[in-house]
């Protein structure tokens, strides 16, 4: 199972499969430590793969092979060869039935891939390569098969689920029963799913545009059954939305969602049977924050949308992962934008991209949206494949326009329905439907790294012409030294001195998309009477960094006048970045830290402006996170970043205490809970004010937090109050709140995870010792990824100041945890180690200490392939 040095797989080595599997019959007899899996595969030689009858390779990991037969005749060992990752079977006919029996151990399966037990319930996770942990099979996405599945289990497991439609059920000998499911759609093995347990369900139905009735069911453990309404409502909204926006209907008579507590990722789009991490599907106002409600809506949408973008049309190989993930993230982002505030959704997504995806692009694991090699595909479920992939699809949408894009997606689904295809097929459908040339655009799929645009301008007063010059470059990434120019849609507008939009052509257009294709290019705007102020990269029209020498006054002007909401927010961020960089500089040189009065005045006017929507006010008031400041720095000086941000926060909090207080009071009115965009925005603004107020650590402010903590009628307000108490109250008050909260919620897994995460992220000095205690707390469990993400991830990825303490204790702690974790769950270990892999960007001593921690992991013995890939690439 463990290999010191896994081999590298290359896209250029892709070959069509030698054999196809037309039908897959599976029969499970479930037992915790010895589940019997019988499979019968109808196999035939792939006519597209050449002559002769080569041996058939079947993937298999951690399986006990009981028997193997071709057309009913048992094979003796000389007819197949056992290999480390599967078996090679000799074949002497072009078509045959292959019968295999294997035994697996779900109870001891802590990898959470394949079949495993979570709180006594059986469930599966097969993407990307989990099916090979269930039975020997050609486990690759370009082999699509019709599945029939029979599950036999004791009657204490009343619910037995798999993909498709239930076709029969009945009693078996002993106190067992069985259910048989048949999925009429061909699918790759990674979309297979099985669930068995003592589950309750909520039921609803959906009538499709063409009038078919679809049964919707959501399964959970009994104690969570009151937390499923929001997911079901989101599901119906998603089904309606996909019909309206993409013309896509659901295709089976039943759609099931199951919540499980132990899950490596957010959720999985198995055909007709989506399996969700409990944290991404269960919610009630008392237990879930607004952010959680919105995350659930987007993930329920995401998995549902995969039914077309992923299942009906799937990936030929895993290098094409972004074909389904990038496209589906784009779809779910647009769905969320339509359901809530479009501007806020865009701001949140861009923040995530800039803070975390840009860091990936600049780190040792940087890879193109379509990677060309990997050791472990699990390491490539990344922000680059998902989020940057979605930005690439968004740029196609921008270049083609909404109608061209819809024609392209219609053509893509029509051409490739039922097939396993490539990113190239997607782009070609977009091109063919719109007649727009995307030849150069394809480089977005093959070149890694974040392009940098540098914009300069020149105004000729006598001619009235304005010239914008755009230069593009892209830094080297592992294996790619030189980059060729990208095709970049640059959306912009020009503002006059009164803040009005200038007309850019004869038709009265005030916004345009420049297509940047060269390393350097100039664009001319004529008939202007004054030098305009450019509003560049509106709505973040491309995933690039853009530099223009804006003055503070110009940024303040854009912040209050730009018609593009996204760019108003972006101007506020640029202002904050300028100020924070001055503060860092002062801190490093031992100078006096000072915040410009203009900046304070700008925040004041945002707070006092009654014409601005609360949602935008809340966004404009956010200081960039330490992590995003780090990402924007060439050399990361963690201590200076922490000091600078802390100073800015304190200064704003003190200077505007009265304004924050007034705004807080105005919004702090008791009303019944609703999830309307307006109420969500008001809660966010109110809690932003509370955070600034409590940053002063005055008794007055902390009393407000305590009051909110004691009386809140929803988790958003409660959790916000708890967080500021943990971070800013005195020890006694903080500990009391922590304890009281736990006593109230210790039976609720999702709330306990929130509680763990808040403590781990606390910026109190020396918080590492509190984190070390949390690891010992009964609520912590190294086998539960949500708990690991809350405590270890909360600390390493969400607690910039304490994790980066200069003694390196944070890194050593992470290394030790990762080493232990790797023995249980390699995927999660490889995810958690990421923060120290970016050591090269840090200044002096921190870089050295991160590297020591990495070496400690490397030298700790046999690493999983997952962890080995990440650690070895970062030590290179
Ligand atoms: N396809 C799932 C999604 O919707 C993610 C599954 C990831 N699985 C994994 N082993 N990394 O995004
Ligand atoms: Zn997905």
TrEMBL record:
GO terms for molecular function: alanyl aminopeptidase activity. Its EC number is 3.4.11.2. Keywords: Aminopeptidase, Hydrolase, Metal-binding, Metalloprotease, Protease, Zinc. Pfam families: DUF3458, DUF3458_C, Peptidase_M1, Peptidase_M1_N. Residues 449-548 form the Peptidase M1 alanyl aminopeptidase Ig-like fold domain. Residues 553-876 form the Peptidase M1 alanyl aminopeptidase C-terminal domain. It catalyses: Release of an N-terminal amino acid, Xaa-|-Yaa- from a peptide, amide or arylamide. Xaa is preferably Ala, but may be most amino acids including Pro (slow action). When a terminal hydrophobic residue is followed by a prolyl residue, the two may be released as an intact Xaa-Pro dipeptide. Residues 231-443 form the Peptidase M1 membrane alanine aminopeptidase domain. Its cofactor is Zn(2+). SUPFAM superfamilies: Leukotriene A4 hydrolase N-terminal domain, Metalloproteases ('zincins'), catalytic domain. Residues 109-191 form the Aminopeptidase N-like N-terminal domain. PANTHER family: PUROMYCIN-SENSITIVE AMINOPEPTIDASE. Belongs to the peptidase M1 family. This is Aminopeptidase N. The lineage of its organism: Bacteria, Pseudomonadati, Pseudomonadota, Gammaproteobacteria, Cellvibrionales. The gene is pepN.
